[in-house]
Amino acid sequence: MPVEVAPISQPAHAVRSLYNGETTKMNKLCRQLSIESPNITGRDCVFSFDVPVPDVPTHGARIRIVCAGACYIPRRSPSLTSLTSNSSANSLITETSVEGDLPVSLSQHGFRDAALFPGYEVAGIVESLGTCVNDDCGYNVGDRVILYPFDGIPNGYVEYLVVHDLKYLIKIPDNVSLSVAAMLPAGALLAMNTVFAAHEHVQQLVRERDENCVCKILIVGTGGLALWALRIAAYYFSNMQSKVTITIASLKDDGLKMAQEFQRVNVVEWNEGLYEKQLIERTMDACQGPVDIVIDFGTTSRSLHRSMQCLTKGGVVFVIKEVADRLLPKFCRLAEERDQNIKPVEPGTLEQLNKLVQLVSSGEIEPPPHTVYPAEQAMDVVHKLCHSEIQGRAILRFYPAD
């Protein structure tokens, strides 16, 4: 269940919307947050400023953002903290020094540094529809929606954003809160597509092997991505329980507790204070030998190298596309020598996001823990993320009501 930590003040400006044929005036400025990469020196990394309210596209819609998933990326490095709320100050410092060769690839308006999901995880309410939108478009003012993260999607850490094509909007059922909905478009969708890729490979292995053979999967990380992947995998592999074993390589103690809620999942802690050989041996013991598939939500050379050491000959490591683009040149030769494959995973499709909404609404997939914070507390939230003080995901709320 989400945890509301403090009341949120009403926005100071009015809204110009079309409700029942009546038009009200809107202030031409709205609030936007800019979240920089956290800096170990402790200087401010969150800024709030006013930007023009975007005009409603003639064939699109303007959305009033209610909730946005809080996420960031450490300066010059995409450590695990860029993907999840589970991070540590020590790992932040380590990853910044080890992985300092990260190319910054995104340059969204309002961001001093790029983030993997720069405000893409948003949920809100249709505030206005364009003048050329047909009455039978399937959407009405007041509908609760999320946005599929299409190419060119605007920054979501803003009170109002626009979408030019309604096909990228997905309605949210009444029984799904907007704080949960905000987790779906980026992190949960990426986890779902990764599980789909792994599921296809498992089906291939089952066809090729003896019917009594077991396929072993290792999921690296216990932040938002890994927790979504674990829940989605539990659903899609439910009819293959005798043929599939799943092990979680946890980077945190609280991650261990969350992963242990699944009785059929093995858990091994990747304590970075241990030698690499010890960590590999510990993982192999937990998995009862080399694994066939690794879903690696880590984003460093060290994580990928360790995953490959735990992988059997002919095995596959699934990694996020942005990470694969950076690390594949370093590891292609090793993968060839070990007869292993490193497969990039794309963010996911619009159809998958629709399916994910249905599964969460029906209760067949339960979302991971999350905590809701007022957007005004974004600075405190980022600091809490840096010091591992938030379990699961952190959600910023711009308005007080669903």
Automatic annotation (TrEMBL):
InterPro entries: ER, GroES-like_sf, NAD(P)-bd_dom_sf, Zn_alcohol_dh. Residues 42-396 form the Enoyl reductase (ER) domain. The keyword rRNA-binding does not apply. Keywords: Metal-binding, Oxidoreductase, Zinc. It holds the Pfam family ADH_zinc_N_2. One of its GO terms (molecular function) is metal ion binding. This is Enoyl reductase (ER) domain-containing protein. It comes from Aphidius gifuensis (Parasitoid wasp).
